[in-house]
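quick one, 128 residues, struct below
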Amino acid sequence: MRLAVASSCKFYAETKSVVARLEEHGFEVHRPNFEFDETVSHVTYGRKAALTRSFLRGLHGCNALYVVNSNGYIGPSVTLEIGYARGLDIPVWLLEEPPDDAISAVITDVLSVDRFIDMMIMREMREE
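---
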């Protein structure tokens, strides 16, 4: 099963942990490029555009998107990623409640990391 994980660069430390846990359970994970952290250094427009396009392309073939939105925060890039995933009919789960009703309207649910992992394991078992 191929899963995607998205987050603001503000939450990369937590996101790395989520990715590691998913990989420990044998999931293939499409994730942000952690080398480009806008909280540490400037990312040029050209690099940001390339990173965004690359992440969106990587959503193709994913079975689900999990958003690490600590404190409910979802920035413009993650909002775009959620919308793109839904356009591909990929279900989207969030770690915490979203900041507004427009995002609430398109997500599948809000789940802790543990519950998300358990649910994906169960789905994978049903597919076998």
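The CA atoms of residues 10 and 82 lie 17 Å apart.
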